[in-house]
Design brief:
Length: 609
């Protein structure tokens, strides 16, 4: 620097690059503006532009008109339904002064006065918007507690908007409780949250709560159509319907998808392009796997799973796709309406499956795939778990419909057999030599209807007598019947079962021992001879004689001997149940059912009467 140069003068003779190695950087034109996404560009500026929340708007309008404005409001709902937008609109409504500067709180803010413009631009000093996700501590609440003591600078109300309020810590919630319950009259709190269950009840009780609903798909489609028209973009109605369905009730999600679809399709957005953008076209591979599953092509299905694995598709995603397809078939079968999210070819395939598949098969496949998805999530090797889950579903898909089997049996026809290759053989019981194997389960003579029980060939024995239908070993162990007793006095029970019930009602403990631990040798009132089947208490005979005298008024002689006793009442019940089970399983109709369903088991026998 020479004596004639000042520090502010530019360096002399340094060339066009001003002494720097790199060239001079171009400057952006002053008129250039950054692109604003549709979700920000079309954020509601008035309550009239807030769609789908009519009940809340009406409540707020009545509160403002009647000057019954609460000191704290809580807006809750899923993402993108207008929680933060509602809070900002309420801030404008409460602080609007009108275009002439003389207005008061209104549900329709003018948007022209200084408070409205400052709030819309996020620069109003008296409207503080805070993100609770990044300001979670008690120190942040202390700043609010200290600030609320001072009056607002220029606005009518000092307003604090806390977004995602559920992210505040427990100590932060406790710190603001007192201020939230009794704030100064110039302070309003506006809270927004997507997880209201995480907000303490002590905070909820101090706020007026508004649950913002999901926006219906038809209203979303109409809203997106109006925005597309303002943007000068041609969007097919089906494309708008797909975007509205994919948005799941969220305006912001739908506008983001619409923004993406415009960038993907250009000046014209078609439904096919939206499906491809959302990845809905990949459902074709899932559809082919479902067809192989329903056709019972185990080998081809495993090959398809191998190809999907090579392409990097997760097993859980495959099973979720199959579940989604089954859900679409079930909805089509129940409602008869097509799904706009699916292509015409897929809608036709779904309609065909809805006509051919029955409800039992759909429910069964849904449960099997749902169980398979849980196995995939917990198995050491998810791919192996997916293979086994789909093979299990193929096996079940080949089984006949239980309703069809019952109808066939009721009509006297052979039940439908399992599909070859999809299920094991119908029955391991060989068919008689004089008739085909397919008709082996059916009887040659007419059988009674299912509701009519088969008559027993002989009267059922009493519980304390040997059952002739019981196993041969148990029947052989029974001794000869006791000699017929002499006529009884009117006060004495007529048989051992009546005696047991009288004792059981009076002395339940003795009743248990009579039922389970002894067998009848002779019943000749007032004399009773029993054989112990299990260890008895040393005072059993004395206690039983006392109980017998109590219930009959007669002195009884109780004798125990080590042989000659019949089965105990408990043993007799077991033998009778076994005989009933064998008689049911021998019924021709039951044989036919077990032949059609080899894995079926007899759980319970009920009296048809």
């Amino acid at each position: 620097m020479t004596d004639h140069e000042s520090p502010d003068d530019p360096p002399a003779d340094l060339g066009p690059g001003l002494g720097l190695d790199e060239p001079e950087q171009p400057r952006s034109p002053a008129s250039a503006e950054a692109y604003r996404v549709l979700a920000r560009k079309y954020r509601p500026q008035t309550f009239e532009e807030l769609i789908g929340q009519d009940a809340m708007v009406r409540t707020l309008a009545n509160a403002i008109e009647s000057d019954r404005i609460a000191h704290a409001f809580l807006m809750t709902g899923v993402r993108g339904v207008g929680k933060t937008s509602t809070a900002r609109l309420m801030a404008k409504s409460l602080n609007c002064i009108g275009a002439d500067g003389q207005g008061g709180p209104t549900i329709s803010p003018c948007g022209q006065c200084e408070p409205c413009r400052a709030i819309a631009e996020g620069r109003h000093i008296d409207v503080v918007e805070m993100d609770a996700a990044s300001h979670t501590g008690v120190d942040d609440m202390r700043e609010i507690i200290e600030a609320v003591r001072y009056a607002s600078v220029s606005a009518r109300y000092k307003i604090y908007i806390i977004d995602e309020v559920h992210m505040l810590s427990k100590s932060a919630f406790n710190a603001i409780l007192k201020t939230l319950e009794e704030p100064p009259p110039h302070v309003k709190f506006l809270f927004a949250t997507t997880e209201v269950d995480k907000v303490p009840v002590t905070v909820l009780s101090r706020c007026q709560r508004f649950d913002l609903r999901r926006i219906p798909a038809d209203r979303l489609a109409a809203h997106f159509a109006a925005i597309a028209e303002k943007e000068g973009i041609a969007v097919e109605p089906d494309a708008l319907a797909i975007i509205a369905r994919a948005a799941e009730g969220s305006v912001r999600d739908g506008l983001s998808l619409l923004d993406q679809a415009i960038a993907h399709g250009g000046e014209t957005v078609s439904a096919a392009e939206v499906r491809a953008m959302l990845g809905l076209a990949d459902r074709g591979s899932i559809r082919r796997l479902l067809d192989l599953l329903l056709d019972g092509e185990a080998g081809a299905l495993l090959d398809g799973l191998d190809r999907a694995h090579e392409l990097g598709v997760e097993p859980g995603a495959l099973l979720r796709g199959l579940l989604d397809s089954l859900h679409a078939i079930s909805r089509r079968k129940a409602s008869g309406r097509d799904d706009v999210l699916r292509s015409a070819e897929e809608q036709a395939a779904i309609a065909k499956d809805a006509e051919t598949l029955g409800w039992p098969q759909l429910h069964m496949l849904w449960q099997l795939l749902l169980k398979g998805l849980k196995d995939v999530e917990t198995a050491p090797d998810p791919r192996e778990a997916a293979d086994m889950a789909l093979l299990r579903a193929i096996h079940a898909a080949g089984q006949p419909d239980p309703g069809a089997v019952i109808e066939a049996l009721a009509a006297g026809k052979a039940p439908p057999a399992p599909q070859q290759g999809n299920a094991p053989a119908a029955s391991s019981t060989p068919a008689p030599a004089d008739r085909p194997a397919a008709q082996a389960p059916m009887a040659e003579t007419p059988t009674p209807a299912p509701s009519q029980p088969t008559p027993d060939p002989a009267p059922e024995p009493a519980p304390w007598e040997p059952d002739p239908a019981a196993p041969a070993a148990a029947a052989a162990a029974a001794p000869p019947a006791a000699p017929e007793p002499a006529p009884l006095a009117p006060s004495l029970p007529g048989d051992f079962m009546q005696f047991y019930h009288l004792v059981d009602d009076a002395r339940p403990r003795l009743g248990v021992e009579l039922h389970d631990k002894v067998g009848l040798v002779a019943y000749a009132p007032p004399r009773l001879v029993l054989q112990p089947k299990a260890p008895l208490d040393s005072d059993f005979t004395r206690d039983l004689a006392a109980a017998a005298k109590q219930v009959t008024g007669e002195d009884w002689e109780i004798v125990l001997q080590e042989h000659g006793g019949q089965p105990s009442l408990a043993e007799a019940e077991v033998m009778r149940q076994q005989a009933d089970r064998e008689r049911v399983m021998a019924d021709p109709m039951v044989k036919a059912v077990t032949a059609a369903f080899p894995d079926a088991t007899l759980e319970e026998i009920k009296d048809a009467s």
